[in-house]
Amino acid sequence: LIKKYREIINARVHGVYDNEMQLKIEESAFATTDLSRTSTLTQTSNDRFDKRIAFQLYNRQKECREKLHNSFTHFFSSGYQKLVLKLLEENAGVDLPNFPSFSIIERLYRAEQNKFRKPFFAEETSYKYQIIHKLTDIIIRAIDESEDQCSNDIKKMLQIEERVFTLNHYYMDTVNKIKKKYQEYNDSIELNRNAKVSPRFTINDFVIDVSGLSNEHQAALDVQIAMSAYCRVVEKRIVDQVSQLCYYWFITRCALVLDSKLSSAFTSATLFEWMREPFNQQQKRENLKKSINAMERALAMGQNA
């Protein structure tokens, strides 16, 4: 039984599912399009007890990435620009008003960094119930231990992210790309002075409003660009690390070694004790045998009389 469990878990972790599912996939590759079959293949994708471990783990990672991405402020909104301008004004006695101080970026990042915890710890996690459904206390305990270890590592990671730092070239690439786009926008205004040009321009999914840029507004825009680029770096870094930590603790250190924990959890004598018939039931059966034997002897005596 434990060997069978090990084989099934290894298969599902590596994306190999049951034969019925495999046959449906193979049939759909060679047969004509069948919408009902397609719906059958996908209808359990969000089932909390879905047995496709690799597939469900990937879905949880995508959900984590989306929640983290959506938690960030819209850095190029007018409201955020007003906040940056207010901080620049407060900082006027420390630095030049048109110079984006690192302390301002750090303060703004602290507000974003406090949001990182919510996608990981805000709700009761449901992923473990997909694995432990109807399993033994040994498996529940192993998964709880992995959950504690994984949570501790994620908390350490979030504490590390309190420091504003990166060597990732994506940060400067993004900053330079936005500034280049902004320069192209300014050049187009110079070439078309008589034409009406929108005060907004878009790069990727950034929508930037550059209407009425004074020196202070220019400094605010630099801060907004820096915040947007750096938070994208942090987002990518956190999502990758969390995905790796979850795989390590719940798959490598839990699901793939549960068979050995089950094997060593009890001795052969303990297993024999668990499988032995209850004493009361054994006594009833012995008494029933005695009654049957007595009746058989009485019947034999009557037939011989």
Structure description:
With 305 residues, this protein is an all-alpha fold. The protein has a domain at 56-168 and 215-268. The protein is 70% helix and 3% strand. It has helices spanning 2-13, 19-30, 35-42, 53-71, 78-90, 102-113, 118-121, 127-132, 137-160, 169-191, 215-252, 258-264, 268-275, 279-304; strands spanning 200-203, 206-209. Strands 1-2 form a two-stranded antiparallel sheet. Helix 1 runs antiparallel to helix 12, helix 4 runs antiparallel to helix 11 (215-252) and helix 9 packs antiparallel against helix 11 (215-252). Residues 20-27, 29-45 and 123-135 have low confidence and may be disordered.
List the helices and strands and how they pair.
Layout: H1 2-13, H2 19-30, H3 35-42, H4 53-71, H5 78-90, H6 102-113, H7 118-121, H8 127-132, H9 137-160, H10 169-191, E1 200-203, E2 206-209, H11 215-252, H12 258-264, H13 268-275, H14 279-304
Antiparallel strand pairs: 1-2
Short synopsis of the structure:
The protein is mostly helical and 305 residues long. 70% of the residues lie in helices and 3% in strands. It has a domain at 56-168 and 215-268.
Alpha carbon gap, first and last residue: 56 Å
Sheet-strand content, in percent, reads under 5%
Order of adjacent strands in the largest pleated sheet: 1-2
Mean pLDDT: 76
Order of helices and strands: HHHHHHHHHHEEHHHH
Q: What is the number of helical segments per DSSP (H or I, 4+ residues)?
A: 14
Report Rg.
Answer: 33 Å
- How would a crystallographer describe the biggest sheet? 2 strands, antiparallel
Assembly category: single chain
Unreliable spans are: 20-27, 29-45, 123-135
The strand count comes to 2
Structural class: mainly alpha
Provide the helix percentage: 55-70%
Structural shape? rod-shaped
